[in-house]
Amino acid sequence: MLAISINETGSADILKAVEIDTPSIGTGTQVKVRIHAAGVNPVDTKFRAGANTIQHFPFIPGCDGAGEVIEVGSDVSRFKTGDAVYYFHGGISGIQGNYAEYAIIDERFLVKKPKQLDYYQAAAAPLVLLTAWESLFDRASLAEGQTVFINAGAGGVGHVAIQLAKSVGAKVCTTVSNDEKAAFVKELGADHAINYKRQGVIEQVNDWTDGEGVDVALDNIGGRETQMMFSLTKTYGHVVSLLLPDRDLDWTIARQRNLSFSLEVMLTPQAAGLVEAQKHQTAILEKCAELFDTGQLKVHVSEVLPLDQAAHAHHMIEEGHTTGKVVLDMQVESSDS
């Protein structure tokens, strides 16, 4: 099969499509999937560059996938040949990723593809869905009537988090870098969009909440941005960060306001081999499939590229400021070939 298989860490230019052996079913509960599309995430670029020291070589990147079941093991009960599926699995801890034409996956980690999504949209969804869901609901217990601040609202996690928050009746404030992105997040349901290049974020949030601050703040950026979260979150509120804050973070305001603080790494269940936690993530994707099919949720795909342009996809992610998601297509040939 054709796959992006790398033998060392490095720049995006090491991502080359090569022919390797097609994997085969090894246990009764496994399913063979013909991958139609794979989502490209910032974490893929970090692993490629060497951020994950537990990676094994040769290494096929890609945590998100969507495709068609073409073979099932003898004990599989939830899927049959021809089923369309989407999933978060692979691309870490020696598990084959999805920058490839085929994958072998245990049925416990597969979900039937939402009917309202094509394969590109479905492949773009799992990691950002799980990150946003776990942050808002598992960590911060966001509920109807509460207010939430989400930075980088037009990004992969941000644009999904806005919709998930609105699906439970929360009010959403977010940040963007231009008017086009402001219109985009408003279409997704954001109640207030702040252009951080022209407006003071803390002042805007405090005005929006009549000086109280938000119940929940979701930090998609980390670093120095985390410091700001404390100043716009209300007393007894909750801050969730997807990335590490600055090492010299000042916790004074967080302590004065009795804020709770959580970190969210949705890769942990797979990296640590926590099967029950992975099954919980599968259940989240099943709930999200219902939201897609009832029109309460959508995922924005900004670019679809053929597999042999994976390097270009990684360059796009590393340059930043993409709207929505970038996806690799396993089913088409590059115009450059």
How does this structure look, described?
With 337 residues, the protein is α/β, with parallel strands linked by helices. The chain is built from eleven helices and 15 strands. It has helices at 42-49, 119-124, 126-139, 156-167, 179-188, 201-208, 225-232, 252-256, 268-271, 275-293, 310-319, and strands at residues 2-4, 17-19, 30-40, 64-72, 84-88, 102-106, 111-112, 147-150, 171-176, 192-195, 214-219, 233-241, 260-263, 301-306, 325-329. The strands form three sheets. Strands 3, 4, 5, 6, 7, 14 and 15 form a seven-stranded mixed β-sheet that branches. A six-stranded parallel β-sheet has the order 10-9-8-11-12-13, with helices on both faces. Strands 1-2 form a two-stranded antiparallel sheet. Helix 5 links the parallel strand 9 (171-176) and strand 10 (192-195). The radius of gyration is 20 Å and the shape is globular. It starts with a strand and ends in an 8-residue tail after the last strand.
